[in-house]
Amino acid sequence: MRLAPPLSAAIALAALSTLTGRAAAQVTVEVDPSADARPISPLVFGINFPSDAQIDAGGLTIGRWGGNAVTRYNYEIDTGNTAADYYFENIPGCWSEAGGYCANPPADPKEQSGANSFLSRMQAKGQVALFTIPTIGWVAKPPPKYAHPFDCGCPSSVTPNQNSFDPYDAACGDGRAPGGQGFVACGGPQATSVATSPDWAKAWVRPWVLVMAWVRP
Questions:
Q1: Measured between alpha carbons, how far is 173 from 164 in angstroms, rounded to an integer?
Q2: Are the beta carbons of 142 and 213 closer than 8 angstroms?
Q3: How confident is the model at residue 111 (pLDDT cuts 50, 70, 90)?
Q4: 99 vs 108: CA distance, rounded Å
Q5: Domain segments of the chain: what residues?
């Protein structure tokens, strides 16, 4: 367990003059940071989607797979949705500089998924994995697409007047009214998503229960 770093041992406080102009007495306050010192949880040392280099440099103990990008993550096709962060687009796991922007799409996106890679790295680095399981009842719909145009939640074909559109995919809007004031109707979730059930999530989690004994409670 780590201890909080020591603080300055003393803080001098100078009292302000009163409204009547009379000076108050000077007061000195001493702070002992070693008194009643207690260890803090090692699980505060973590970040979202840490790289191996960040784990090593930061002495991290926990890595998180979470945020808007995985709220609708579909493990069967390794695809999530960017939500309001970036034009509500379904983006495959290989769509990154490191992944070559899907120049060589995975033959089996389920087995070669970003989720599996993340968990394998956390295991190899001895990290606790804080992992998000979609629970809103919708995930990115198949089939996965590995180039523009991507499926998106606020397409111009449904709502042509929006505040802005993806400069790389003019069909995908930001879901806001012109001028950025308020939101527009974007249609239903079926534009980007398929419905799921608790059984769908259980099918994903069940194998981990058998092989992920390294995950700490």
A1: 6
A2: no
A3: very high
A4: 15
A5: 41-211
Can you give the pLDDT at residue 210? Answer: 65
CA distance 206 to 213: 12
pLDDT score for 38: 85
CA atoms within 13 A of residue 73's CA, in its CB half-sphere:
22
C-alpha–C-alpha distance, residues 154 and 114, integer Å: 25
Checking if the pLDDT of 12 tops 70, the result is no
In sequence order, which residues have a C-beta less than 8 Å from that of residue 148 and are 6 or more positions away? Answer: 168, 169
Residue with tokens 């992920």: 212
CA 82 to chain centre: 11
Sheet holding 46-48, edge to edge: 46-48, 62-65, 128-131
**CATH numeric code, 41-211:** 3.20.20.80
